[in-house]
Specification:
Blueprint: H1 4-7, E1 25-33, E2 53-62, E3 69-76, H2 87-93, H3 97-103, H4 107-118, E4 123-126, H5 130-140, E5 152-154, H6 156-163, H7 175-178, H8 190-206
Parallel strand pairs: 1-4, 4-5
Antiparallel strand pairs: 1-2, 2-3
Length: 210
């Protein structure tokens, strides 16, 4: 079965990761998507399994070292195809159906807010092809893509190379531990994982490895 990137390969939403700009702002983001026991191994090919966004988390960083955090962003999104979260997803992320009922918003509102948060940042990166999930969800919703072409980039290959890890072991929530740091809070949440990625980026750039 084709992967996410293959299914949106014609999209100009993303570009290959390039070096960070010397000034301005960059955004690191992470998505939490609906999941079930074994869905990752199945590439979400089970009956009724869709990669619906449940949470968008991001941090905006000063592009110049030491890449200080300028702002943060996190929203919950109400999935439509599978509106009830699985026990597996709840146990993994700590996000509950009650959380969604209280704080969740429609996808179009969440994406619009995310676009506003990005603003004039020149680069938006993730540890993996999270942008593919974003493209698919926007397409499912029949929305207009609100982001500049080529804005997003997957930096997992560069992170894996710098850390000497296989890409499938370059997991966002564990990046700080691979660099000798203690685990950061809120693993497997959008904002928690975005901050873990940002920590790794800062540290690797300081060491001259990124």
């Amino acid at each position: 079965m084709p992967g996410r990137a293959d299914r949106v390969s014609e999209s100009s939403a993303a570009s290959p990761f390039r070096d960070f700009p010397s000034r301005g702002a960059v955004v690191v983001f992470d998505l939490e998507i609906t999941a079930w026991e074994g869905s990752l191994a199945r590439n979400w090919s089970g009956p009724g399994e869709f990669m619906e966004i449940v949470q968008i988390g991001a941090v905006k960083l000063d592009a110049s070292m030491p890449m200080a955090e300028l702002a943060s962003f996190e929203v919950l999104v109400k999935p439509e195809k599978n509106p009830v979260l699985s026990d597996y997803f709840i146990d993994l992320t700590g996000i509950t159906n009650e959380d969604l009922g209280r704080d969740g918003m429609p996808l179009d509102e969440a994406v619009s807010r995310f676009a506003g948060f990005i603003g004039d940042a020149g680069l938006v990166v993730s540890n993996g092809n999270d942008w593919c999930d974003l493209v698919l969800n926007v397409e499912w919703a029949g929305m207009k893509w609100p982001f500049a072409n080529g804005l997003f980039a997957n930096m997992r290959p560069r992170l894996a190379e710098a850390l000497g890890l296989p890409e499938n072991q370059t997991v966002s929530s564990t990046l700080p531990q691979h660099l000798g740091h203690t685990a950061m809070p809120d693993a497997h949440t959008g904002l928690g994982d975005a901050r873990a990625i940002a920590f790794a980026v800062r540290e690797l750039r300081a060491r001259g490895h990124l």
